[in-house]
Amino acid sequence: MRVYLAGPDVFLPDPLARAAALKAICARHGLVGVSPLDDLAGGDPADWAALPEAYRIARRNEAHIAGCAALVANLTPFRGPSADAGTVFELGFMRALGRPVFGWSNAAAPFAARTRAAFATTQAADGTWRDAEGLLVEDFAPLHDNLMIDGAIAASGGVLMARDLPRGAAWTSLDAFEACIQAAARTLKG
């Protein structure tokens, strides 16, 4: 069973080694991990040749997602309090296909707490939190990220595994990923 491995892992210093490590964990649990870095079987379609590289990558990733039974997303906060925007798109794309989505994160704090820590916020008299521009800080504790992300995972039958790790370990530990893969394997083989 093929699962797409979404996440900002492609931006790590050695993304190929990271992809190999993720795929090895998938294989131990009877799943085939598909990385965004993988080539398409048969190569890119000829009509993509004129596209800018960024658009070829986007189409390749969509093709990988469409060819998988489920998606497993690294939702560790990336360059801010929330998950990587591309990963979130991929999660929504798979959810729109009606297939299960799973998530994992190396930051366990709820989204609202991470947002308050990342930006200047103030608490209003009604107990809500506002940012420096006066915009409401989404607070649906204990949701891990934006309600659409957590909601998509739950509605698809997936799970989200989060671990609280020190900052230096957030991009090295694969414990939450392995727990997520174990849960995905049970669900998909169920």
Produce a short descriptive summary.
By secondary structure, the protein is an alpha/beta fold. It has 6 helices and 7 strands. Helix 3 packs parallel to helix 5.
What does this structure look like?
The protein is of the alpha/beta class. It folds into two domains: 2-108 and 146-189, Rossmann fold (3-Layer(aba) Sandwich), CATH 3.40.50.450; 110-143, no CATH class. 38% of the residues lie in helices and 14% in strands. The chain contains six helices and seven strands, in the order βαβαβαβαββαβα. The protein has a five-stranded parallel β-sheet. A two-stranded antiparallel ribbon has the order 5-6. The protein is globular and about 60 Å long. The two termini are 12 Å apart.
